[in-house]
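pinning this so it doesn't scroll away 📌
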Amino acid sequence: MSNRANAATGTKAPAEEENKSSGREVAETVVFVVVLVMLLKLFVAEAFVIPTGSMAETLWGHQKLFTCVECDHQFPVNSADEVEPNQLGMQQRVVGYTCPNCRYRSTADAIKRTQREIPNASSGDRVLVFKPQYHLNEPRRFDVPVFKYPEAPQRDYVAMNYIKRLIGLPGETIAISQGNVYATTALTYPADELTENGELRFPQPDRKQDLWNLEYTYPQSYSENDLLAKHDFRILRKSPVKMLALSRLVFDNDHQPKSLIGRGRPRWFPEHPTKWSMDDAKAPKRFAGQGEERIWLRYQHLIPNWNDPATPTEPRVITNFMGYNAGEELPGKRGPSFENEPNKWVGDLMLECDAVVGAGAQELILELSKSVDRFQAKFDLKAGTCTLVRVRATGAEDLTTIPSGVQSAGTYQLRFANYDDALTVWVNGKPLDFGPAAQYPPVLAPLEYDAEDTSKEGWVRANDLQQPASIGVIGPVAVEHLKLFRDTYYTSRSKVETYYVQPGHYFCLGDNSAASADSRSWGLVPERLLLGRALLVYYPLSRAGLIE
């Protein structure tokens, strides 16, 4: 009766009106969400995919994740050229690797013999970029910005977005020398200064928007590094958080190569074996000290000859080798890049371990060598202090002493780094505050270079070959989970290279310096082309976290 009445009067049933209202609400909600997402993408945050390996291993591009058949260390290998043609127009399949931990070199045939599959290429990290960052705050050194490539911000209607690490600020002259970066504002570049030939020494472009070009950084190369002292260059030091982000594994003692067990000396070995107790004499992972005298563990960088693993090998210096760049590719070879340069000696090292301190323990020392000097974090386990020590040929010098919190019996996670001419100590994940006393004047080059140091890098056989890292103890102290890292090494083709950073511009480098096209090769990043700061990796979930 009521339905017929509604029809007669031309009015709609309440259910029909409710359905129409509900449909309109859904449509409005969808439109609102779409508009909101577009606004967020335009003004607040945007997702990007990392295509290349120029920021490895901080950020991964297209890569294959291998597990070494010898030591079970898992690591990525660059496969960008397999996914997209390289600069030679070739696509190259990654079929093997060289393990960054044990240096085992596995070819496609070797992988098949182990009945393992060559992994498929995975896409790069997905990162979230906070776009208002540089509208709210000035860019900061060691940020990771995303920006439009200045030479071609767009190519074939596709945005050319790059991601690098910000190193140099406007008005600075940046120097790259033996892996470290330096800055000064003492150098000037007068626009009217002439050369002996009457030409402008520091030319300017016709258009100010072209100041980004490499030509206007006035790049210079020098064979000796006395330039750094002459012009007040200061080394650019990283915060403890950045140190960890830019550390690269040298050796994880928990992942020793199986084929070498019992064949020669392991990388970590006791100086006096009878004074240590080890869990496994052939492949020790836990070393327990005892007695009233100081005893030492030593590390040597032993790279085996995998064609003849039974033959003992001589120690080598630690270099900037990157497993990420060492994939075996078929067919052809890569195009020219810094990656083709020989590996360089790296003297900036970091040592970490778990220390099990027993009752009555007296002392624990973490020691790192660099050229003619050795540096120590000396823990007094009775007083609960840590002393930083610089050991020179003329004797040991205590730099500073502070409370460490390492005193009572227990297990402590310890880490000691000698990066950027400064010493840093962590206890249970927290850095100790030594203040400016932890910073030291640069290590001087040796009076005579080693005969094998043909590049005159400055390493010393007694330190950098024989004992680049050591652990000393007095009393019942056991150490385990030993890991050795190195700092990121910024490559240059001469002893010192300098670049001027024009006003309104920034100097940016890739973390994977040996395989990065960056401000060294094409120039500066104009402030107007900064899109925002890369905040976090959100996918894959196994790598999710903040970008430091």
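📌 and the second one:
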Amino acid sequence: MTDKRLNATSTIAAVILLFTACFILYRTSLKVPFLFDDLLFISSNSSSNWGISVFFHNMGIFISRPLLGLSFAANYEISRNSPAGFHIGNLIIHSINCSLIFFVLKKLLRTTYGELTILNKNIVSFSGALFFLVHPLATESVTYVSGRSSLLYTMFLLLSVLLYISFEENKGEWKWFFYGFSLLAYVASLASKEIAAICPLILIAVIFFFLLRDNKKLNLIPILPFFFIPIATVLLRKASLLSGASPDGTSRNIIVQLMTEIYVLAESVFKVLFPVNLNFDPDYSDITTPIDSGFFIGLIVLTFMIAAVFYVRKKNPFIVFSILFFLISFSPHLFIRLRDYMSERWLYFPLISVSFLIAGILATTSGKNQARGFVKYSPAAIIFVVIVIFSALTLSRLEVWQSADLIWTDTVKKSPGKFRVHANLGHVFLREEKFPEAEKELLKAININKEYAEVHYDLAQVYSNLGKDELAYAEYGNALKYMTYYDDPAYSVYYNSMINMGVISFKNGDKQKAMELFSNAIKLDNRYPQAFNNLGIVFMNMGDMEKAELNFLMALNRDPKYAMAYYNLADVYIKEGRNDEAAEILKKVKSVKPD
């Protein structure tokens, strides 16, 4: 078999194996339902108002990441509201990313380890890509549908790097073709997630460590557009971001941000090397003093990484590049202030550094001039064992992702002092009608931070379902107290709290208070039928049939399919002896609610 044919055959086999391994390893992710932000970004949009054609007219929350939104819209066109369809989309992108890592490694090995056989280069490249594929730290990005932003920007950024390497290597007429498409891929990466702006720094490192061979001079002019594009994008969107303003409005001292993130960097390195005790919502406390042990640990790790770069810079470019790759891809988190210091899905792209590390180790021990026997094969054997262990850890982590209560229960154990994890687990238990468990978690959340209206609202719902109306009324009141604005009507804590307090007041015989609350809800937002219907019930109970009829009609005017208002209106007509009109109303209700 010729070298050319061997290369083609082994390359095709590697890509097929990567795709197959990905789908086998992550097969249980296809059973994972929509979770957390998926319910907001995807499930709530999965209706007649969702799809590619509608997306281009109204990008909504995806205005800053249009390609991410487009991928979800396209996914919906294919699989509708099936979570499995969206998970398949994530698996395809993850498989493509692993394949792109294979091709990038293969190209870079050709420039630095020319003595390796074609088959050895492909095996080394495949091993690096496979290590990334099975790494447990990638589980969150791959399994969590909303984590697709990390998958997507990684795919386009890797493609941009691969095409830029081809541009640097090519001397013929295709040279500028590769350059142009490298730029386009970079723009696509930015349109998937803004952190892709690190691409030019990655390219400079690639050039410096792999492409400056045979006395080739350093030429960074082609890199300049890669710097200008994100600056222009930011200026077009929001110039204040150039000043270092937080994208999500987080206010935090920049020194505190830097010291805390240096510790987070150290912990992230540990997770890359030893991916155990993974946590969907890690809890980091602000580091406010340089004598904090966390900051000291972070400085030691950072110093060690920088020293390692200088120590092995001439011995193994892959190992040096793996360290720099991680530092470059992590660096935006040092300065960009976000509500959370770190999330494991944000480490998806930095995780690629392990692929370069594995390739560097295997390439060094596979060279023709290396020792034979144990020294030659022990690294490969160790890496094989680690791949098997990591695969088992990934399968174990996937079990936790099978439902919302499993993932939040796991997270509560690992971040017991964090408000959000208790609040979210309580909300999940409420949805599952596990009311005692929900009460326990929501009270823990309130004990940590009492100023979130949504948590008080959930607790009120729990008490209502447990028949504890007095406690429910108090918690609805707390929801109104801490909800300082009228929120989204689709999930209106403010509006619904007023409605539910009115219902409790009516049940307790306080009709005037109930009337006041329902009337206030109508003044707040008169587009919805519930308050009109409930106010009509109060008037009907007080014997004022005229006002009761008016309010039921107003409810039906807001929602002609609101069956409860039809029944109540028919009841008014029956009480007034208008039986024919009542019969007509009951006919209508059957048309809107056949069952």
